[in-house]
Task: inverse folding
């Protein structure tokens, strides 16, 4: 396992353990949240506020199956439908290659929590 994988796992655990018990309810109330299901079981979710991806999660059992890419495509489509020309997110270090494959570019120095700001510009043909 690489250092980025180790850091990503540790960061995910810190985030999960620090999230308030009403985080999901607040996200649903104030932002757009979509879930992916497989055989009636939630295997992933994405949270969007305006032109920002606030969170993306795919269960380990569904990782590398395309669920994250499908959720991102759906969210990007919704953001673009609002007339936005860019989408922003803060990526954990272990997720940088995933987002780079989707066309995201690093947009600044790491944040205090070590997440990395990224941006994707929608082209005229998307």
Result:
């Amino acid at each position: 396992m690489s250092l980025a994988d180790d850091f990503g796992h540790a960061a995910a655990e810190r985030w999960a353990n620090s999230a308030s018990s009403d985080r999901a309810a607040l996200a649903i109330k104030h932002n757009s949240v979509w879930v992916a299901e497989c055989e009636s079981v939630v295997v992933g979710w994405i949270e969007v506020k305006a032109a920002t991806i606030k969170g993306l999660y795919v269960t380990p059992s569904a990782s590398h199956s395309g669920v994250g890419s499908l959720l991102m495509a759906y969210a990007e489509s919704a953001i673009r439908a609002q007339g936005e020309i860019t989408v922003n997110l803060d990526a954990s270090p272990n997720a940088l290659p995933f987002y780079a494959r989707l066309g995201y570019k690093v947009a600044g120095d790491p944040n205090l929590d070590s997440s990395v700001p990224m941006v994707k510009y929608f082209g005229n043909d998307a």
Notes: The first strand starts at residue 32 and ends at 38.
